[in-house]
Amino acid sequence: MSPARFLSARRRHRSAGLVVLLFGLLAVGSAYAAFAPGNAEADNSAQSQQIEEGKKLFAVGCASCHGLNAEGGTNGGGKFTAPSLIGVGAAAVDFQVGTGRMPAMQPGAQIPRKTPVYSQAEIEALAAYVASLAPGPAVPSADSYDVSKATDEQVTRGGELFRTNCTACHNFAGRGGALPNGKYAPSLMGVSEKHIYEAMLTGPQQMPVFSDQVMQPQDKQDIIAYLKALQNQKDPGGFGLGRLGPVSEGLWGWFVGIGLLVGVAVWIGAKGVKAKGAKAK
């Protein structure tokens, strides 16, 4: 009897359905084993390689302050303490290293922004290594901070949010300002959209953390839209005077305006004295 006739004769057997189900599962499993594992292993291998590369970079450039296992530590003769990086996430690393604040040239009350030391690939490797230590905020996607198509409504709403949450430190024009104990809120002019978003997400140095539970992603994007519009805004009259507000503008008026008036008065007085002297002769 041929195999086809054998199966046809037993297709109504009570165990036929179970046999068909087993054959189906075997076929699906074989197909998955043929295609999926190779890609998954390749992805895991690439990620593991990036983490390993980041670990090496960390050991050379970061471990002297933050510890071999990123647990933090005291350096500089006990003058400053490097915080633990366990749980800070990839976003914090991308911000700190991407803006050149880390590695720090020397300890101080405030670590300033400077030209980055590492390339973008090295920054991503460092971020991947720190992210592998414990869960934390991930680097945001480009869609989260893209404001190239922001509407006027978004800019207006972003301005309201910025004035409510940020102007106490960064000033109403985003130009920064002084803080206690030698610290300061840096200017936000010229800062990339991604780094502004990451700063709100992670709260670097003395800045509070505006997580997604505290401030929605759309709110963060609107604030970025406002800052970019503010950066491109022209100064009425041609002089921004630092955009520090009416106090600085008033001081400018007093020192320059009143100074000029005093100078003119002195010049007129000197001319009058000379004229009287000439008549007396």
Automatic annotation (TrEMBL):
The chain crosses the membrane at residues 251-270. InterPro entries: bc1_cytC-su, Cyt_c-like_dom, Cyt_c-like_dom_sf, Cytochrome_c_Oxidase_Subunit. It is found in: Cell membrane. It is an enzyme of class 7 (translocase). It holds the Pfam family Cytochrome_CBB3. The keyword Glycosyltransferase does not apply. Keywords: Cell membrane, Electron transport, Heme, Iron, Membrane, Metal-binding, Repeat, Respiratory chain, Signal, Translocase, Transmembrane, Transmembrane helix, Transport. Residues 49-134, 153-231 form the Cytochrome c domain. Gene3D superfamilies: Cytochrome c-like domain (1.10.760.10). This is Cytochrome bc1 complex cytochrome c subunit.
